[in-house]
Design a protein that fits this description.
By secondary structure, this protein is α/β, with parallel strands linked by helices. It has 16 helices and eleven strands.
């Protein structure tokens, strides 16, 4: 062992004692040493000093296969410049901090760490077993600016099972290929929960024709909340343009989030503000009441009762003639069956929104990724349950 005080570095040389028998990994035949090659691996720091292992690794020639190959060493993987302990430490750090920051801490470049991480994740994902998969969730999340997305597929245990580029029909087709490559069958999938994107729905019809699609309440209420906000903005513009009720227009401005929040989550003072708005502005009051009525759809014990309630809601909403409700009426009318499928699957895409927030926080912490594949690697590392 050599310690250089000026360079704060430790170099450890490893030598073998006596004659060692080598076994060919392909055919199991006993091999003789061919020659030796000097190899170096970076190891974990030794008393805060950079540590490297050096060894003249034998090459063996198999008499049966005729191959010449390096002997495997127990402290490192093949073709790696790091020891297993160093790689394990790097992977644990990259779970909690950006790869660039991990590289600065360990004293290596981020490109070398990405190779280690990609290899680690790829090796773990090879053991993924999807033979029992009978339902999954799918949603999109942004990977870069300019409306660039990745699609994330999650199983019923909320583990990420597949990430692919794009959010169209082809992303669902790629997932089916991944599913069948890991022991699963498209015919086994009974329930799917997704948002209302046309690409997902078209892909599901093509690749999983026997599955029941559920549009969860999160996205339906999201469309309804947009209708409430449109009614508020329309009323605010009317008051401002009229000129005689500028004071009321000022009171209405800035109340958006109180109107979008669920009633049970409002404080007493916030509820007073909302009550004043609903009493003073008839159109907003009607739309807000329809929002609360739509939320009641999922409180029924059966799909039959919910279907009758949703049908009455549609009739009432159409009779109001309020332009802010036009989009949500179309959404409920076009996806009536998919909304009510919740009573069969009990699947809610709210878990995907929570997953997306975690992924976006990882992306923001890294200040974005040069390649969407790096984001995919981090998704598997943080959310697959296999890494």
């Amino acid at each position: 062992m050599n310690i250089d005080d000026t360079e704060t570095r430790v170099d450890i040389r490893i030598r073998s004692k006596g004659k060692v028998e080598h076994i060919c990994p392909d055919c199991g035949c006993s091999c003789e040493g061919y020659d030796k090659r000097e190899r170096t691996w970076q190891h974990m720091d030794f008393f805060d000093m950079e540590c490297h292992l050096h060894c003249a690794v034998p090459r063996m020639e198999c008499p049966k296969c005729g191959k010449v190959m390096l002997v495997d060493v127990p402290w490192a993987q093949e073709n790696s410049g790091f020891t297993l302990l160093f790689e394990a430490k790097g992977v644990e750090l990259m779970k909690e901090m950006p790869v660039n920051a991990t590289g600065r801490y360990l004293g290596v470049t981020d490109k070398r760490l990405w190779r280690v991480l990609d290899k680690h994740v790829e090796e773990r994902m090879k053991h993924q077993d999807l033979s029992e998969l009978d339902r999954f969730y799918v949603d999109e999340t942004s990977c870069r600016r300019g409306h660039r997305y990745v699609s994330i597929f999650v199983d019923e245990d909320y583990n990420i099972i597949f990430v692919t580029n794009g959010n169209d029909t082809s992303s669902v087709a790629r997932f089916r290929e991944h599913l069948e490559a890991h022991g699963g069958k498209a015919s086994n999938v009974k329930f799917i929960c997704c948002d209302m994107g046309k690409g997902f729905l078209s892909g599901i019809k093509n690749e999983f024709p026997g599955a029941v699609v559920t549009y969860d309440r999160y996205h339906v209420i999201q469309h309804m909340s947009l209708a409430v906000d449109r009614a508020r903005r329309h009323e605010w513009n009317v008051l401002r343009e009229g000129g005689g009720r500028l004071k009321d227009a000022t009171k209405l401005k800035g109340q958006r989030f109180f109107l979008l929040r669920n009633v049970e989550n409002l404080s007493p003072s916030q509820k007073e503000r909302v009550d004043w708005i609903l009493e003073s502005h008839k159109e907003i009051g009607i739309v807000y009441g329809l929002k609360e009525s739509l939320r009641d759809t999922w409180d029924y014990d059966s799909g039959y009762g919910a279907a009758n309630h949703l049908l009455d809601w549609l009739i009432t909403a159409e009779r109001t003639g309020i332009s802010a409700l036009r989009d949500i009426i179309k959404v409920v009318d076009n996806h009536f069956s998919e909304i009510l499928n919740w009573f069969r699957s009990k699947m809610n895409n709210g878990v995907m929104e929570g997953m997306n927030s975690v992924i976006q926080s990882v992306k923001r912490r890294a200040r974005g990724y040069r390649d969407w594949r790096n984001l995919r690697t981090m998704c598997y590392l943080r959310g697959s349950g296999l890494c």
